[in-house]
Specification:
Layout lengths: L6 E4 L5 E2 L12 E2 L3 E2 L14 E2 L10 E5 L3 E4 L5 E5 L2 E4 L3 E18 L5 E8 L17 E2 L2 E3 L2 E3 L8 E13 L3 E12 L7 E4 L2 H16 L23 H11 L3 H11 L7 H18 L2 H22 L24 H24 L3 H17 L9 H10 L7 H9 L10 H13 L3 H18 L12 H4 L23 H10 L2 E3 L6 E4 L9 E6 L6 E6 L4 E17 L4 E7 L2 E3 L3 E2 L3 E19 L19 E3 L14 E8 L2 E5 L8 E3 L2 E4 L12 E3 L2 E6 L1 E4 L9 E6 L7 E7 L8 E8 L10 E3 L6 E7 L3 E9 L4 E2 L1 E4 L1
Helix pairs in contact: 1-2, 1-11, 1-13, 2-4, 2-13, 3-4, 4-5, 4-6, 5-6, 6-7, 6-8, 8-10, 10-11, 10-13
């Protein structure tokens, strides 16, 4: 077990070999065919960040390289002699855990002349062997290796690769010592060069940019953008998931042909999700902005028009959405995707897609099409009134991004939807991308950077080297780095999910400040949003004409700009509270065409390289400081002493004993609660004739000599049923103490997470609570003062299990 890990060997940094170790196992792809000729980036998790291929094509096959572990840990020091991080002599039973320092798209191998005994191997993105849902080719990521001559390889699916950071060799028995050597990951990669770059005064933001890029790069398969590294049965290109992935690829790689191939591949897919068709449309429009590829726009225009026209039929009478996001306010994924917030958000997404399509069609000289989609927007806006102030964060963000929120309502909508730092966090970094886009349109850059740090910076602090499917900052308060994540309505949580990479594009467009003005960057804007939070930035964005290169320091006023041939630029010199005296380009003083409070704009800058010098006076504006609060933030108490003897200590006002009488609940509720509703759960009764002697079983409400115990449980391993909810509606406001009783009856090592939401608006009311070590029974108690939804999530163990709730 992890608790028994007693020996640690950490030797240097992880070593990447451009050619795979000589292996007796047949490898599916050829070794890398380029060289390390690019710039080193110490803050990138990508071991190939400096690797360059001569001429990578969309049609190229995958290639492979090997990665050595950064360290190895043994739980039985007397059973193993470790010579290096990849070579050791094993004498008896032990578990060896290898940390490769970052997640890779890989399979796990080692060499040994012979192993006289029984061994197994495991892999995971986190620090315990992974387990996934039914439907996977191999849900438990532990198995006996396949032997090829001297090579032992863990094979868990027909494509071999999984998301691997940690790997294990489990020596179950050994009749004589054996030497294990060349412990390695064989990693697959699509030949893809970094053509963009990003660096700034905030190292976390630099790490975020490169982590998003690496996340996407790991999921580039032979023919399309993948959506997930771990094999849990949904590993293909989803039309909506691909939108932020492709967005990040535009600024990091400029691999236009491969993005175009993926747009073709997903163009006729629907995935049963209305919004995903519109995200495909936004991706096509994004691609056109960055490339100016009119031929491809023409090729895709019929499909684009069909998706946009279908959306008009759905606008007023929204059918089953299927899915909009994992956030509770969006119906918690597939649980309730037809809630009002989703309907509002979908309508705003329609308006955005029509609006942007009209702009692109206008540029491409499809004027009838442009007029058609502009008329869609005008017709809807003239015939409907929208109560934007009632929208929650996701619908409000979509309204802002659609450009339909009236300026006079911005302050009110900011206050109701965005102002609360905790409330504007989505559970999904996918949806968070659209929120930070909206915050930029509202000119709330300081607050957007705070949210980026909460969401994506928080994932780095958790130990991420890629970005996760879902995340809450409070995970960092209740878990150690690289611990097993919370599993929930998304099922078994993926820690390498490129739908979370949209932040990479946001940083290039909003902090580096590079955006196309005319499609294909024939003309472009550079508008770096610098401040006391980010004082300098340096980077590049690929374009069809070459890279736009930018550097600027708002403290010194010194900058650089490269305008590619046959293009022109507008450069906006930032002020951030300071006054500009003069600005020179290559030592010539220039007068801005116009100014506002935040920038001075210099237009029609022609191709060439420029040294910029801005002379300032005054101080930078103080950064916006925001608290991070919960409405019911409070101490949470744990009780492991009382066990089943609850009477007199818990449940004075009421109780519900789950499946106490066979599969029937024993219920006594206070007058201010009409009912308690369970959802998504399974029901079990746990006790038999031994109940009276087991102190974990609950004493009967009416007979102290009798005990019994039942539970509701999550429905593992069925996909997306790693969670269950308990709705507790109040009919009148009331402050009370709620206690949940957990008993891991089989002592299965269950680990469980609790989330508490406002039942009416689904606001997250408290930090996440982790329940560990409840084999002897444990009460978790906290105060509530309103109707709540309790969501109970499996983390580890067979399932999550709850046996009772008490009200005091």
């Amino acid at each position: 077990s992890n608790a028994a890990l007693a020996m640690l060997l950490a030797i240097g940094m992880s070593a990447c070999s451009t050619a795979p170790e000589k292996s007796d196992a047949p490898e599916p792809y050829k070794p890398l065919s380029g060289s390390f000729s690019g710039a080193k980036v110490p803050l990138s998790p990508d071991p190939l960040v400096a690797y360059r291929w001569a001429n990578p094509l969309a049609s190229d096959s995958l290639e492979i390289y090997t990665l050595e572990p950064e360290n190895v840990v043994a739980d039985s020091p007397d059973s193993v002699k470790i010579y290096s991080r990849s070579r050791m002599r094993v004498k008896g039973k032990c578990n060896l855990r290898f940390d490769f320092g970052r997640v890779s798209a890989a399979w796990f191998e080692f060499d040994a002349d012979t192993v006289c005994g029984e061994i197994e191997m495991s892999i995971s993105e986190y620090n315990e062997p992974a387990v996934f849902n039914a439907g996977s080719q191999h849900p438990v990521k532990t198995a006996k290796p396949t032997k090829y001559g001297r090579t032992y390889r863990l094979e868990l699916n027909k494509e071999l690769y999984e998301g691997v950071r940690f790997a294990w060799i489990h020596v179950k028995s050994l009749s004589k010592p054996t030497e294990i050597r060349n412990v390695r990951l064989v990693c697959q990669i699509k030949p893809t060069n970094y053509k963009g770059s990003f660096e700034c005064s905030d190292e976390t933001l630099t790490r975020i940019w490169y982590t998003g890029a690496y996340d996407v790069k790991l999921n580039l398969l032979h023919d399309y953008f993948g959506a997930i590294l771990m094999e849990r049965s949904d590993r293909h290109s989803w039309t909506g998931d691909a939108h932020p992935s492709q967005a990040a690829a535009l600024v990091a790689f400029g691999n236009y042909e491969f993005i175009k191939a993926n747009l073709r591949y997903t163009s006729t897919q629907f995935n049963g999700i209305l919004s995903y068709s519109l995200y495909w449309a936004l991706s096509l429009l994004d691609y056109y902005r960055y490339t100016g590829d009119k031929t491809f726009l023409k090729e895709m225009s019929e499909i684009l028009d069909n998706k946009l026209d279908v959306a008009l039929g759905h606008f007023h009478d929204v059918p089953n959405n299927g899915f909009y996001g994992w956030d509770e306010r969006l119906g918690a994924g597939f649980e309730n995707p037809n809630c009002q917030e989703v309907k509002n958000a979908y309508r705003m997404l329609c308006l955005r897609a029509w609006q942007e399509a009209a702009e692109i069609y206008e540029d491409a000289s499809y004027r009838e099409k442009a007029l058609k989609y502009r008329s869609f927007v005008n017709h809807i806006l003239s015939g409907n009134s929208f109560l934007f102030e009632t929208y929650s964060i996701h619908a409000a963000a979509d309204a802002v991004n659609a450009g339909v929120l009236p300026r006079e309502k911005e302050a009110a909508v900011w206050q109701t939807a965005f102002a609360d730092r905790q409330n504007r966090l989505s559970y999904s970094p996918f949806n968070q991308f659209f929120i930070i886009q909206a915050m930029a349109r509202l000119n709330r850059y300081d607050e957007a950077l705070t949210t980026i740090d909460d969401c994506w910076g928080g994932q780095l602090r958790y130990g991420g080297t890629t970005f996760f499917e879902v995340f809450r900052p409070s995970w960092n308060d209740i878990s150690q780095p690289n611990d097993a994540p919370v599993n929930n309505q998304c099922g078994y949580t993926s820690l390498t999910h490129p739908w979370s990479a949209g932040v990479t594009k946001w940083l290039s467009e909003e902090i580096l400040g590079v955006k196309p003005w005319l499609p294909g960057f024939k003309s472009f804007n550079v508008k770096p949003h610098l401040s006391a939070k980010v004082k300098w930035v340096k980077g590049s964005t690929p374009t069809p004409y070459g890279a736009v290169k930018v550097a600027f320091n708002i403290e010194t006023g010194i900058g650089e700009l490269t305008v590619p041939q046959r293009t022109t630029a507008t450069f906006a010199v930032p002020k951030s509270g300071r006054s500009l005296k003069e600005v020179s380009f290559n030592d010539s003083i220039y007068t801005p065409k116009n100014e506002d409070d935040d920038f001075a704009y210099f237009q029609e800058i022609k191709e060439g390289e420029y040294k910029i010098k801005a002379n300032y006076s005054g101080a930078l504006k103080e950064p916006v400081s925001e608290p991070f609060t919960y409405q019911l933030a409070q101490p949470v108490s744990e009780d492991t002493v009382t066990q089943g003897n609850w009477k007199g200590k818990y449940g004075v006002k009421g109780y519900l004993l789950c499946n106490y009488d066979s599969l029937n609940h024993r219920i006594s509720l206070p007058s201010f609660i009409n009912d308690v509703a369970f959802s998504k759960n399974a029901n079990i009764h746990l006790t038999g004739d031994d109940a009276p002697t087991d102190r974990r079983a609950l004493v009967s409400p009416d007979d102290d000599s009798k005990r019994s115990l039942g539970a509701i449980t999550t429905r593992d391993p069925i996909a997306c049923l790693q969670t269950m909810t308990i709705d507790i509606p109040f009919n009148a406001p009331q402050l009370c103490r709620l206690s949940l009783y957990f008993a891991d009856w089989e002592r299965d090592g269950r680990r469980t997470a609790i989330e508490v939401f406002d039942l009416d608006d689904r606001t997250l009311l408290m930090p996440l609570i982790m329940v560990r070590n409840y084999g002897n029974g444990k009460y978790i108690s906290f105060n509530i003062d309103r109707s709540v939804r309790i969501r109970i999530n499996q983390v580890r163990g067979k399932n999550a299990s709850l046996s009772a709730l008490f009200i005091d």
